[in-house]
Amino acid sequence: MAEEFSTDGMVDMYLFENGQLLEQLEAITLEQKDSDGFDEVAINEFFRAMHTIKGSSGIMMYDNITKLAHKLEDVFYYLREAHPDNVPHLELVEHIFQVSDFISAEFDKIREGNDPDGDSTELVAQIDEFLERIKNGITDSGKEIPKENEHVEPNQFYIAPVSSSESHFYRIVIHYKSDTMMANLRAYSAVYALGEVAEDLQYVPEDIASNEKSADIILCDGFKMLLQTQASMDEVRNLVDNSSEVDTIDISECSIEEFMSGFEPASSPVIDLESDVDTIKQREIEKEEKKQKKDEPVPGDYVIQPKQPGKPKVLAKHNEKKDKQQSFISVSISKMDSLMDLIGEIVIAESVVLQNPDLQVPGLNLSNFNKAARQLTKFTSELQDVIMSMRMMPLTNTFQKMNRIIFDTSRKLGKNIALDIVGENTEVDKSIIEHISDPLMHLVRNSVDHGIEDSADDRVKAGKPAQGKVTLEAKNEGGKVFIIVRDDGKGMDPKKIFNKAQENGLIGDKMALSDFTNKEIYQYITYPGFSTKETVTEVSGRGVGMDVVVKNIQQIGGRLDIDSVEGEGSVFTMKIPLTLAIIEGIVLELASSTFVVESNSVKEFFSADDAEIITEPNGEEYVVIRDEYCPIVRLEQQYHLDIESRKKSQGIIIVLEHESQKVCIFADRLMGQQEIVVKPIPTYIKKVDGISGCTQLGDGSLALILDVGGLIQAERS
After folding, report:
1. Average pLDDT of 84-101?
2. pTM of model > 0.85
3. E strand residue ranges, 273-368
4. Most CB contacts within 10 A, which of 1, 4, 225, 404?
């Protein structure tokens, strides 16, 4: 086909569609990697996935991807057709992952606006050599090698009809799901797929590559094709059923006369033997009048398709039926981010309106205003909930990707490790998922390399199964998401970590191991340059990784807890917020400065006498709350606020709790509770312990958001 067409919008759809196919391919591979071979269903899925990627890449003229996908498609073609024995399964698994990695890397180049210029020659040669061994195995077993899986370039779709006694004629109608985007491009892929077996091929609409509006016609009427081929009906169906968006496929065999008559079925004459002559004449007159009226074109009734050489002009009539309602649409993440930012500005503007000083004038009757304000607050809150639910995504894909990390790393290290996934449907904000992917990868690799024993014999001697186990778990708890990486390996030796920390100058020579808890000792493995690995490997030993994990987690207001039992295993727990956008906060004032603390962290407020506050000789302060001693953090000292001298108990005491640890702060005044739009601290300002961000209040002033975990850590240090 020699039509010119625009690729605007096609690249995004190409990347999305084929990216999903690669994810599906990897998931099936990981699921059956430990089997003796792939089952028939998996082989068919692989063949269709590679066939689709090959076809769409050919349309986009990404030749290196097309050639590589076609070569792997050849492998599964022979597996499907010949069912050979003794196929090296693990070697095939590695080839699949190599192809997936190469294509994914090319997709990354395309996303960044670059050309996919990777050289697939060596990888194609490796797969070709693997394929030759399969063919030799087929012939050695006495079977006949199937015919070649030929590849036809996507620049020729109309083939001159050459009918033979083995030719079949099919009428095909493909109906796509009502929410399918760019249905014309999916139809184009179906045409491309049939080009490999077609002797003659016609379709309506004809301008599917150059006319975006043809997608609407396809969704209404279906994509209609007339095919002359020697392939069977099942082979044709397998070729066109290559998209997850296909709803139904109607294929019926027709005669050569029906094929030549085109898309309008020929009507057989009907002889009326019961009516009289006058009735028959009147009926013919009425039919003629209706035909004349129908033949008169009405604006909007018809779309005139461009005429191609050797083909009659076709009128594609719009379906008079009402379009089916779409249940899903795809929206760009950037648009969702912009919408979330806009919601944040609306929340701020709402606070500005409701806290306007003009409303404080005595004598104003604000009953109607307050009623409208309550309604506005209700709608704003519901709008936030809806937008947040749209941004929430399950951790399924993120967790499944770790399966690949386990496979690759364990193969490099020669370990037998299984992955167990729990709570993969837990939902987290999209922006959070983007921040935790890399930290999660480092933690999983750390568990495989450092956690699991080096040999199966060591595990058996310790009374464990020969196969190691890494568990990924996610759960919601107290407005936060807990993501846990657990292994059943050898655990960590606190003494070894303590000695290494002293060697690196992280712990003073006068400090003893007994001065620290085990959890405090384990935190030293997150310091930059810290590693207990004696030999540097491809996976670890360079002293980098865990510090990056902690840094990335802290950027989203999270925390990493580490626990371990020597000989039993280790547990790494990421505690992260559900979202970064809007929180409920308590606004407080101290020394003319305004702070905000998250409502979930506030346990109680109270006032105290000087006698209830205990001061240690080293200056540390505690307040007695129901016979429990709770440490006090003076914000004026922590942040060098200018405050007048006062009694040590003066002010309102606020008890804050973070992960079962409590701390108290003082405030001069509580200004109320309100929804807070979290803004990051500008990068040119040095990070301050205990401050996680800032926000704008209703009166236009700025307030600092307190990080309770950071305050507790600062108090302990």
Report:
1. 88
2. no
3. 302-304, 315-317
4. 225
